[in-house]
Amino acid sequence: MKVKDIVDALNLKVLAGGDGLDREVKGVYTCDLLSWVMSHGKQNNAWITVQIHPNIIAVATLLEFSCVIIPENIEVEEATLNKANDEKIPVLQSNLNAYEICIELNKLGV
């Protein structure tokens, strides 16, 4: 499944990284502790986190994540969005909480 398919299915808002919407999503990882994510996340994961600082884009790039999903309409720092655009990492925003996003992604077969 492509990031753009998830955006459409979950009615997500694309905050940045629109050039990466064709990335393939093969799994989901939900965690807010960056060091833990770096040691457990997998390539092509959609990452759900409440973290909003630029370091999330560094981690997403390092692990080759498909996208970052920010729950509960949390406002994301401008520097983070600029870095996401530079790295072509989609940053998506949802009004759902992390648990609800996971449920919906599971329904989609991700």
Furnish the topology, listing elements before pairings.
Elements: H1 3-10, E1 13-16, E2 27-30, H2 34-40, E3 45-48, H3 55-62, E4 67-70, H4 78-87, E5 91-93, H5 98-107
Parallel strand pairs: 2-3, 3-4, 4-5
Antiparallel strand pairs: 1-5
Overview of this protein structure:
This protein has five helices and five strands, in the order H-E-E-H-E-H-E-H-E-H. Helix content is 39%, strand content 17%. Helix 3 (55-62) links the parallel strand 3 and strand 4. The termini are close together. The mean pLDDT is 98. It is globular and about 30 Å long. It has 110 residues and is an alpha/beta fold. It has helices at 3-10, 34-40, 55-62, 78-87, 98-107, and strands at 13-16, 27-30, 45-48, 67-70, 91-93. It has a single domain, classed as 3-Layer(aba) Sandwich (Udp-n-acetylmuramoylalanyl-d-glutamate--2,6- Diaminopimelate Ligase, Chain: A, domain 1), CATH 3.40.1390.20. The protein has a five-stranded mixed sheet, sandwiched between helices. The longest helix has 10 residues, at 78-87.
Q: What can be said about this structure in brief?
A:
Residues 5-107 form the DRTGG domain. With 110 residues, this protein is α/β, with parallel strands linked by helices.
Structural class by helix and strand composition: alpha/beta
DSSP summary: helix tally? 5
Order of helices and strands: HEEHEHEHEH
The largest beta-sheet arranges its strands as: 1-5-4-3-2
Give the tally of structural domains. 1
Cα distance spanning the termini: 7 Å
CATH homologous superfamily? Answer: HprK N-terminal domain-like
CATH class designation: Alpha Beta
CATH topology group:
Udp-n-acetylmuramoylalanyl-d-glutamate--2,6- Diaminopimelate Ligase, Chain: A, domain 1
The gross shape turns out to be: globular
| Helical content band | 25-40%
Poorly predicted ranges: none
Number of strands: 5
CATH architecture tag: 3-Layer(aba) Sandwich
**Structural Rg:** 12 Å
